């Protein structure tokens, strides 16, 4: 395998690489920030990475939209991952809205959205 073939394969699979990078960025954001809104943003970045990964699995290089024309022998992309991701996007938006509404309630109750400060106020151990 030549270096050109390796670079060509990396280019063809770049969607997977970027999905992994996005997931790691979101995971790092969730783990390293005490601000609850930043944690929700990190969760949304991770969801976006998963959506990108699934849509990339259904992509066919040079494929067309799956609208079948009689007599035409085209290659089509797989529509199932895209359809599933539409449902996933709706669920992700709902979860984000619910999480943000809980953060508003937490802010009203404790006066802060810092997770470590909330744990200190509640008398628990810090994160």
From TrEMBL:
UniProt keyword Acyltransferase, yes or no: no
Keywords, in A-Z order: Membrane, Transmembrane, Transmembrane helix, Ubiquinone
Organism: Dethiobacter alkaliphilus AHT 1
InterPro entries assigned: CPA3_antiporter_subunitC, NUOK/Mnh_C1-like
Family affiliation: Belongs to the CPA3 antiporters (TC 2.A.63) subunit C family.
Gene3D superfamilies per record: 1.10.287.3510
Any one Pfam family match given in the protein's UniProt record, by short name: Oxidored_q2
Topology term for the membrane: Multi-pass membrane protein
Sequence intervals crossing the membrane: 15-32, 44-62, 82-104
Name assigned to this protein: NADH-ubiquinone oxidoreductase chain 4L
